[in-house]
Design a protein that fits this description.
This protein is α/β, with parallel strands linked by helices. It is built from ten helices and nine strands. It has a nine-stranded mixed sheet with strand order 1-2-3-5-4-6-7-8-9, with helices on both faces. The longest helix is centred in the C-terminal third of the chain and has 21 residues.
Length: about 280
């Protein structure tokens, strides 16, 4: 099976190109798709810093590329966008598609330890396999200069991955992240199935818990949260994350946006701010 990426689609946008690739992932044991937005290049030898986007529940690698409008600012700032899928696919694990918040489209960016879900290792895929794949196959990407952001489940992924790997990422931001996963129904369901019943194992994938373990954050964490988000009170819990940041003296800019919900209209409205947030960090480092 070919681990090298094969281009399966390409479309020009804001002077650059949205390109979709497929490859076989040894980490996940299946074929995976991902998108890269390549900005217009000033010279053949130019290398772009990389900004990873992690999507939310039910999404594929396509939702962000189609709906966010992030390419305009990425083109202007000269940043490549890399968008992986949200879970393994095609493995035919029993029950993998029975509910929208577990299994396919719901990888939660963990390394599953339970036998049934042993291929659900999206953490290693995002942190280890994908960056090496990019470095080995795309000389126009400067993978050593990277930042990460995401939405909802992907915001949870971005925050937890950044906090545990600050040597790999210059900055992090999130839209409506699941900020305290072990204390909300989505996280409890996912963690029980993927990680088992030992809650100390859950803490390794909970952004609020990780703030206390990895408090030496230099770049400000940016979070936007819609005030009319129906998941705010029960699932997202940004106030818990905010409290942990205050206790640990971690720089956080948490912006509550009146009238906005959980959907891509909200993301598209504030995406330019997030691209600029990361562009500044990538230029400084």
């Amino acid at each position: 099976m070919d681990t090298k990426p094969t281009e399966i689609s390409s479309g020009k946008m804001f002077g650059g190109y949205n390109k979709r690739f497929k490859h076989f992932s040894p980490t996940l044991g299946c074929s995976m798709n991902f998108h890269i937005y390549f900005p217009p290049s000033p010279s053949p030898s130019h290398k772009f810093p990389v900004l990873y986007w992690l999507s939310g529940l039910t999404c594929t690698d396509e939702n962000f590329i189609f709906k966010s409008g992030a390419q305009r600012a990425a083109s202007a700032e000269g940043i490549a966008l890399v968008v992986p899928d949200t879970s393994p696919r095609g493995l035919n694990v029993e029950g993998e598609a029975d509910s929208w918040d577990l299994g396919v489209g719901a990888g939660f960016y963990v390394n599953a330890t339970q036998e049934k879900w042993k291929n659900w290792c999206m953490y290693d895929y995002v942190v280890r396999e994908l960056p090496k794949l990019l470095s080995d196959n795309f000389p126009q990407l400067e993978t050593s200069k990277a930042s990460i952001f995401g939405h909802s489940m992907g915001g949870h992924g971005a925050l937890t991955i950044y906090l545990k790997n600050q040597d790999k990422y210059k900055s992090v931001s999130a839209f409506a992240p699941i900020a305290n996963a072990m204390n909300c129904p989505w996280g409890q369901k996912a963690f029980t199935n993927y990680l088992g019943d030992n809650k100390s194992d859950w803490e390794d994938y909970d952004a609020t818990c990780l703030i206390t373990k990895f408090p030496n954050v230099s770049a400000t964490i940016l979070i936007d949260q819609g005030e009319d988000d129906k998941f705010l009170a029960d699932q997202l819990l940004p106030h818990k994350f905010e409290e942990a940041c205050k206790k640990a003296n971690v720089p956080l800019l948490l912006r509550f946006q009146p009238g906005y919900d959980h959907l891509y209209y909200f993301i598209a409205t504030f995406i330019d701010d997030h691209i600029r947030h990361h562009a500044q960090a990538l230029r400084l480092n």
